[in-house]
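Student:
Attend to each token:
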Amino acid sequence: MSTPLHTTKAIILRAVKYGETSLIVTAYTELFGLQSYIVQGVRTATKKGSGKANYFQPGAVLELVVYHNELKHLQHIKEFKWSYLYKRVMSDVIKNCVLLYMIELLQKCIKQPENNPDLFYFAEEALKHLDVADETETAGMSIYFALHLATFFGFQLNDEEQLPVLDLQEGKFTESYPQHAYYVDGKTASLLFELLKVMQPAELSEVPMNHLQRRAVLEALETFYALHLPEFGKMKTLQVLQTVLA
């Protein structure tokens, strides 16, 4: 019995070389959630294979025609093309660093193959917006993405009442300091409260931040994720992102 073909959009998370000419690609797909694919012949120097590996850069948004077999861990791609072709993200250093942060965060959060179309569309729209965002929006997109992404995994910061201390373990603002070290206060707490009100990236300009404040917010969010997701660890892209945004 032949494996059925499906057309699905996909966000590329990772690609590693396999054999002489192929790639093993990890992608977050619209139809099947997290999947691994073998893509054959895209690293050859022939005219047919030339440049095809560029399609599988982290963050690329593709339309795939795939063979999908629920019993297999490694699927096959029959055809691929751009679903969205970036205008600036791949050539703009700052935008590219923000993109790589967003992709790493997705990778750290998504561990199972279950599909979640709402999560896919949220990530797709955020990546597209990053491509056309102005300087202020670009600088804040990593924070916007991290704050909204958490809700898809069952944890989020509570913005019901602005109080002086943000308990990162409980995910809520409080009057008093908790008994543990996982909290922020002062300007970082008040900025996070304001940022929780941002529902669209265009509203990021309403919450002005300098690079030190942005750094403190991003570090608080890294701690928040690490407290709520097992094996989250440290974000490799965070230091690079903070450097280019400084």
Notes: Residues 211-228 form the longest helix (18 residues). Strands lie at 5-18, 22-29, 33-39, 61-67, 74-84, 165-167, 172-174, 183-185.
